Amino acid sequence: MARIPLLALRNASISFGGRPTFSDISLAIGAGERVCLVGRNGSGKSTLLKALAGLIETDKGERFVQPGTSVAYMQQAPFFDASLTAGEFVAQGLPPDPEHNDRQYLIDAVLEEVEMRPDRQLINLSGGESRRLSLAQALVGEPDILLLDEPTNHLDIPAVEWLEERLLGLSAGLLIISHDRAFLKRLSRRTLWLDRGALKENDQGYGNFEEWSEGILAAEEAADARLDKRILSEAAWARQGIPARRKRNQGRLRGLASMRSERAQRVTTGEAKLGQATALAGGKLVAELEHVSKAFTDSSGTKVIAEDFSTRILRGDRVGFIGRNGAGKSTLLGIISGTIEPDSGDAKHGANLMPAIFDQLRTTLDPESTPWITLTGGGSDMVDVQGKPRHVASYLKDFLFEERQYRAKINALSGGERHRLLLAKVLAQPSNLLILDEPTNDLDIETLDLLEELLAEYQGTLLLVSHDRDFLDRLVTSIVAVEGDGVVHEYVGGYTDYLRQRRVKATPNAPVKSTSKSRAAARAEPVSKLTWKEQKELDSLPDQIAKLETEKAAIEKILADPDLAAKDNKKFQANVLRHSQIMTAMGEAEEKWLALAARAEEIAKGR
Length: 607
Prior knowledge:
Layout: E1 5-16, E2 19-30, E3 34-38, H1 45-53, E4 60-65, E5 71-74, H2 86-91, H3 104-113, H4 127-139, E6 145-149, H5 157-168, E7 173-177, H6 181-187, E8 190-195, E9 198-202, H7 209-227, H8 236-264, E10 267-268, E11 271-272, E12 285-298, E13 301-314, E14 318-323, H9 329-337, E15 344-349, E16 355-358, H10 371-376, E17 382-385, E18 388-391, H11 392-398, H12 415-428, E19 433-437, H13 445-457, E20 461-465, H14 469-475, E21 478-484, E22 487-492, H15 495-506, H16 515-524, H17 532-559, H18 564-567, H19 569-606
Parallel strand pairs: 3-7, 3-8, 5-6, 6-7, 14-20, 14-21, 16-19, 19-20
Antiparallel strand pairs: 1-2, 1-4, 8-9, 10-11, 12-13, 12-15, 17-18, 21-22
């Protein structure tokens, strides 16, 4: 049974400077619905949210609000009046009350949730504080519809997990813009995709987005090929990248698993497994910390960052750093990179390190310069990318910049575009140590995919501070968790592995096993051959994949008819759905075959 819409746009269009942002869009949100809105930076997502909130007028179409419905909107970059306190700011989110009841308890309750005092002045707010305060203002009035624009930006992982639980417990209808894929997967039950000015809708959550969007783009590409149309520049990277990413992902997954396995041989849960640095080949050591401690003392007292922490980082390691905002992640990173001295313990650093550092505050960008000059210095059309010459236009296109932006002033770019430019600058530098402090803020999901590809191909050592759980899972070989009060532990694998190992460690009477020992034991267990079932699967999977390829080609031939959607929309939709299902089945079959083939190869080598 369809829900009664509480908030809707009908046939809405908005243009800026004669350039259409979106056209003829209709959408509705009902009570209790959980909807995510995705699309590239600059595609108009925030504009669409503002139109729904009633903050801007549409050029055409209409906005509908069910009488008596309260709508709360959290904007991506709110303005904070320095003359207000936190309590006064949050009170602005309360709906009008003709009876003038005392509602201070509502303000106090929500501020306690976000860990902020009501009398806090709105000056010198950190990114995390401003985000938590904005969320408090949106939540305080218990709205019927809640519109959230990038609610997880600058939040640490505990705060994101709190927000997930808080939103799951609401009866309000939700519409969320976010680049946090784990957040969207957990919360969304319907997906809206704003793509090239049109809105596409899927009655499933974000977890199904890749499969669904691949089917749509593949069908469009088949039609474009038949008509010999020029692929729209706005979608070129997405269309070219999707099939390539699927193939590359297999090698990336195998490579990451191999690196995690190697890391497991050197790391145990909660402490480093140290050896002699002299036993390593020259240049292999990046950093080695032995029983390091660090603390700071200020007017509020002494803050212990790390106490008796040890680790070893070798060339090619990919280490993720997590912890609450202010816990000391950047300080620990400074000790590892050699820019901060520990109070006690030994910190050794490798020779000939060439670090490239991502500054999340973007202070290294000249606002009066242009992307072209930023990358080339202004004297050439070429840019050195890891020591290899590239034409600057081609390199900027890799980072999803349009031609009109190449020579635009940096101060005219959006936050996400400046973020991409700084990443392009940092990743171009010759380096063997890449230090990225919160690189995912302000990035859309497509750019995150691109960044993952670039980092997966990086041959040096990666030190990554991030609150993006999915990003960490896809990239790092170990997690350094800065738990607070000097407690720092290292865990093999990504964020999901960290959670699992931490749960085992926290379980009363549960035997805490060394990750490295358990994995080493598993590897040492004698296996003479694949099981009968595994061998049968390995033999039959190539035929299954070939059949799927044949069916895929037949469907693409059907979808190549440019008039199919108009002539028989049901047939068109059915074939798009089947194409999407085939792509998923092929991916799963390929992954299974690769895993079995790798296992068979390992067994053969061990004989």
